[in-house]
Structure formats: structure tokens, C-alpha cells
Amino acid sequence: MLKLKNLEVNISVYTCFLFILFLNSCKSKQDLIKDKLIGSWDIYEMSYKDKDYLETLLINAFTIEKDSAVTIPDTIHSEIEDSEIISKWSIKQVEKNRSILFIDCKKNPAFTGNYKIRFFKNYERKLLGIELKSETTYISAYKVLQNFDIDGKNWDVP
Predict the structure, then answer these.
(1) 3-class DSSP state of 52
(2) What is the CA radius of gyration of the chain?
(3) Residue 40 in contact with residue 59, Cβ under 8 Å?
(4) Beta strands in 49-154, from DSSP E residues, in sequence order
(5) Comparing C-alpha atoms, which of 37, 29, 50 is closest to residue 101?
(6) How far apart are CA 3 and CA 130, in angstroms?
(7) pLDDT greater than 70 at residue 2
(8) CA–CA distance from 60 to each of 12, 45, 94, 106 (Å)?
């Protein structure tokens, strides 16, 4: 009788543990998108108002941080005081299966806007990429310091 009762307790504890583990491992679509976005990106291609914009950037990289800050590169037109301006980002769900990235960048209007997000893999170069499109800006970038095989699982799944 005692062994049976211990077995029931062990099963109950194990079941509760699995249930809690399951709840913690379930992430929303927005959380999955945020996990992919956070990090440093090398800009491969950029246009603003249908003109090439990559050549105006002093550094072809930006960083999306966990605390909703985004580090935007300075341009050849930037002022020294612009480096103190903090830009913000957030994810908004606009439809059931579609989210957009909103960037609020006071120092450079080329980066401000609501972006459609598309993640992609470059199999030839083994890189994880992102395509961002707003009404005025197009950005194609690759994630820095990511393992193509490990981090790239479900990368291009919407």
C-alpha cells in the first residue's frame, strides 16, 4: 500500500513539473519574432525613397536590443549631438498571421516607420537574413554571429 501511494505522489509531482515546463516553453508568435530580431545586423542593401542609401551610412550595421532600444548607424549627414538620441522599436500584430516592426528613430527619418518583416536564409553563404519594407525604406540585412544550422531552425517560417 505504501509503495502505491509513493508512486501516486511521484506521478503527481512529475505531471505538475511537466505541465509547468510546458507552459514556460510556449512562446507567442511575437516572442519568437522578437527572439529573431534581437541582435546585431549587417546591412547588405538599403534604399530610402527609391534611392540607394547604403553609401550614406558610416557603418552598415544596426543593433536591436532587448530593452526596446535600437542602435541606428550615423550617416555622412549626422550631427555630433545625434549620437545621444536613443531610437526605440516594438512589434505590433496587424493581422492574425502578420506582425510589423515599428522603429521610432528621431535622428534619421530613413529608419523611422512600420516595416513588414520577412526572414530568409541564404543557403549559398550560410547566413540568416531579414528583409524590412516600409512605405519609404527597404533594408536587407544579415544577422551577425549566428549559427546557420542551429539558430536557423524555423528561421524562414512566418
Answers:
(1) strand
(2) 21
(3) no
(4) 51-52, 61-64, 69-71, 87-95, 98-104, 113-122, 127-133, 137-143
(5) 37
(6) 57
(7) no
(8) 54, 9, 29, 18
By the 8 A CB rule, do 139 and 131 touch? yes
Judge residue 111's burial from the number of C-beta atoms within 10 Å of its C-beta, 0-12 exposed, 13-18 middle, 19 or more buried.
Answer: buried
Please work out, in degrees rounded to the nearest 5, the angle formed at the alpha carbon of residue 132 by the alpha carbons of 74 and 127: 90
The secondary element (H helix, E strand) that includes residue 69 is: strand 69-71
Count of other CB atoms within 10 angstroms of residue 58? 11
- Mind listing the pLDDT tens digit for each residue in 125-146? 999 999 999 999 999 999 999 9
All cell numbers assigned to 84: 545621444
Q: Which of these, 108, 41, 27, 115, lies nearest to 74 by C-alpha position?
A: 108
More confident residue, 70 or 79: 70
Q: State the pLDDT confidence band at 16, using cuts at 50, 70 and 90.
A: very low
Enter the DSSP assignment of 75.
Answer: B
Residue with cell 527572439: 35
Q: Is 3 helix (H, G, I), strand (E, B) or coil?
A: helix
Question: Locate cell 524562414: which residue?
Answer: 156
Please give the Cα distance from 139 to 130 (Å, whole number).
Answer: 8
Q: In sequence order, what E strands does 14-66 have?
A: 39-48, 51-52, 61-64
